[in-house]
Amino acid sequence: MESESSLLSLVIVLLVAFFTPLLLHRFRLSFIPVVVAEIIMGLIIGKSGFNVIQHDMWLDTLSTLGFIFLMFLSGVEIDFSAFSSKQKKSALPNGKLEPNRLAVSTFVFAGIFVLSILLSYLFVLAGFIENMMLMTLIISTISLGVVVPTLKEAGIMKTGIGQIILLIAVIADLVTMILLSVFVSLSSDGGGQMWLLLVLFATGVIFYFIGVRFKSRNFVARLSTGTVQIGTRAIFTLIIVLVALSESVGAENILGAFIAGTLVSLLNPDQGMIRQLDSFGYGFLIPIFFVMVGVDLELWSLLSNKNMLLLIPLLIVALFVSKFFPVLILRRWYDKNTVLASAFLLTSTLSLVIAAAKIAERINVISAEMSGTLILVAVISCILTPIMFRKWFPKENAGERKIKVIFVGANQMSLAVSKELGQSNYDTCIIHKKMEKADSNTADSTFDIQEITGYDEEILDKEGAFAADILFISTGDEELNSTLAVAAKERRVERVIARIESPDLAKALTEQDIEVFSTLLATTALMKALIESPNIANIMTSDETALHEIRMLNPDYNQMTLREFPFTGDVIIVRIFRGKDSIVPHGDTELLINDRLIVTGSAEYVEELTRELQYK
């Protein structure tokens, strides 16, 4: 009977995890992060609600694995390329030169941390908590899991202010995680063995160099397909080894998982593999953990305690104050609404607060009520801060930025396309090897051409080629194109297009999410269309009847059906691409954030629709 009861609890938790995103979609509650909704659903079925869940080995094990995997993916989320100081400064709309992103982000976090210490001292003086170091970690941490998707949704991830916000969150994530391990080492029974943490970090460094050495080997590429999937096996082995070592040296298992995630991020793995890990983590293990967080919260007991009830608004205010005043330095470059919106977004906190609260409760540093209060504050912050960010962030800031397209290799094709794109919402540039003789058109002053001494990765990196939104590599050497395309993907360029004529090489690159262009195939396809379907060919080549792609970024239209869509211009939506799915639109089709709409119509109305869907 106990076995049946435990399995019933697991089934209920899995059903709740499955139906939660469906309910959010049905009732159009897109402003609530899914993980927060999972905690709320856990409250309903747990100790604060119907109390139908019983702890057992299955649930505890899967919840712990979800916690470990969450910390691993938190490490993977850290984009170390953001720390690059090679980013060229650009002029802001107000005419000022944007600040050094890394320097100003470091300064802002230093201010956040100092202010967090002062605010923590006030909470200790007021008698709310005894451990000042724990409260400092709670106030100073920032949730990458909230910041990253919010920046992407706003379309400002690659802008100056977006990168500054991201860098502040990354630095906060790194520093607070390390300090949490120090806190645990000092507070637990085995305190005073902090030097053992050096063993853990040293092991991580060793694994990094091993990974660098073997990553590019041919046999690893061969073993990464089919039923072997050596890369995935290596990642899970890395997680388990570092988690086991972390517990052996007296640290928390999440530190080992976090270090494993940062190592994977540093090694720039294939993005397809990262998506698989995300799917496994956020599709199975992590929802179980968040639902169980809600199950274990005793909300009514917490709210009956006057001190805890008073602490909730005070801590929310402290979270905002600790971010607002340091961020004010950005007023030297940005308007007040942008700065205020940035402060709200940086107030968000979740995963690390839950980790710190649960660990502190387990080692008897805080009570269960205090742990629940800290988690509840984190949940509230994750609901409020994205809403306030969208409310205050200026619409025009998201709309001003052009898509940066860089062509590597000057030829008749890249020159012509660059000129055409330069007349629309694209910022184009051509990088060309100085030693090569390009066509006579390359001397035309109407083209923005940067001449370099060679197509080495280091030279291209220095020239800012890998800072592009879209990188089109079109040199005369397809092997070089392939090598540079892979290097660009490793540096996390969002879209990489390579000119490749060999079918086998094209297939290998496509598997790494690199888009391939073939001059021969493109010419053949167009000629065939001209012969068989001249009207279709006319659509592809005519400015008046051309097809256009628009990315849907405006949350006002999220989950709105096409039948309800108020835009009535001279535009027809031909197709909607959602991830890898191709959708034939009809009246009941819902628009979702990041949908790519293929439309045709007059240029005037296409531009109007683009503004409507992309700018909030």
UniProtKB/TrEMBL annotation:
Membrane-protein topology: Multi-pass membrane protein
Record GO biological process: potassium ion transport; proton transmembrane transport
Major localization class: membrane
Molecular function via GO: antiporter activity; monoatomic cation transmembrane transporter activity
One GO CC term, this protein: membrane
RCK C-terminal domain location: 534-615
Membrane-traversing stretches: 6-24, 31-50, 62-82, 102-126, 132-152, 164-186, 192-211, 280-303, 309-330, 339-360, 372-393
Keywords: Antiport, Ion transport, Membrane, Transmembrane, Transmembrane helix, Transport
Subcellular location field: Membrane
Top-rank lineage group of the source organism: Bacteria
InterPro entries documented for this protein: Cation/H_exchanger_TM, Na+/solute_symporter_sf, NAD(P)-bd_dom_sf, RCK_C, RCK_C_sf, RCK_N
Family: Belongs to the monovalent cation:proton antiporter 2 (CPA2) transporter (TC 2.A.37) family.
PANTHER family tied to this protein: NA(+)_H(+) ANTIPORTER YJBQ-RELATED, NAPA-TYPE SODIUM/HYDROGEN ANTIPORTER
Protein name: Sodium:proton antiporter
